[in-house]
Write a structure and sequence with these properties.
- This protein has one domain (30-243): Rossmann fold.
- It has a six-stranded mixed sheet with strand order 2-7-1-8-9-10. It has a two-stranded antiparallel ribbon with strand order 3-6.
- A hairpin with a 7-residue loop joins strand 9 (231-234) and strand 10 (242-243).
- 30% of the residues lie in helices and 15% in strands.
- By secondary structure, it is α/β, with parallel strands linked by helices.
Length: 248
């Protein structure tokens, strides 16, 4: 992947929507589904990720930053969690501590998510994820002078209860990788963003909840993630994800 010199100053992103949930399946079913996908998906292969050296300029340019924050943005139909895991593996191989967080662990309680019904695209876009908790429990501790103590998740959408997970301490010069949909619309202080791009046809074909499609159309219109992100992965063909390279 081509890359250029980059600034480590966190750049604000446009305001807009909020991230969605994971499917309401049991823990065992979700684990089995992840195992099946991992065994067949090209995203589980190291070659699906650009060479770890491609991230070198970013890391070298950020030596004065206490913690790096990377956002992997994309709909549930695009395997952002798998890409986040591959990126974490590549960065760890370069001596960086990495903590991966999914927005699916920061959903609001069902009583708030379903205030306007269980299939309201506008609520899904703007009201399902607890962005305040992400700022407080994930980004806040990684501010200059912060503690580095990050909460990995807050709410279980299956049981509709708090997860009560312990905090994880990310050491200085560590990297946070946050993945989920609609990430580029909240002014989150990312140092690097990657957008997983699906064409409208591929998104419609691979989305399990068709009622959510208007939310993604609104995100495209209001935020323009392909133009906003630092790098784009075209993922229409899951066998051959294509990287555009880091923007200079």
């Amino acid at each position: 992947m081509a890359s250029g010199s980059r600034s480590c100053r966190a750049r604000p992103r446009r305001t807009g929507g909020t991230p969605p949930p994971r499917p309401a399946a049991g823990r065992a079913a979700r684990g089995a589904a992840r195992a099946r996908r991992a065994s067949s998906s090209p995203w589980s292969r190291r070659e699906a990720l650009p060479d770890a050296g491609s991230w070198g300029p970013l890391l070298r340019g950020c030596r004065t930053v206490a913690w790096l924050k990377v956002g992997i943005d994309g709909p549930p139909a695009a395997p952002g969690g798998e890409l986040a895991g591959l990126l974490a593996e590549a960065l760890r191989s370069r001596g960086r501590a990495v903590h991966v967080v999914g927005t699916g662990g920061f959903l609001r309680p069902a009583s708030l998510r379903y205030e306007y019904g269980k299939q309201d695209p506008d609520a899904y876009y703007g009201g399902w994820t607890d962005t305040g908790a992400l700022w407080r429990e994930v980004f806040g501790p990684l501010d200059p002078g912060g503690t580095g103590r990050v909460l990995p998740d807050l709410w279980d959408p299956v049981t509709d209860r708090a997860t009560r997970s312990p905090y994880v301490t990310l050491p200085p010069r560590g990297v946070l990788v946050l993945h989920g949909p609609f990430l580029l619309g909240h002014w989150f202080p990312f140092d690097l963003t990657v957008h997983l791009r699906l064409s409208p046809a591929a998104l419609a074909r691979r989305t399990e909840e068709p009622w959510t499609l208007p939310a993604f159309a609104r995100y495209e219109a209001e935020v323009g993630p392909e133009e906003t992100a630092d790098a784009v992965v075209r993922a229409d063909d899951p066998r051959h994800p294509a990287w555009t390279g880091l923007r200079p």
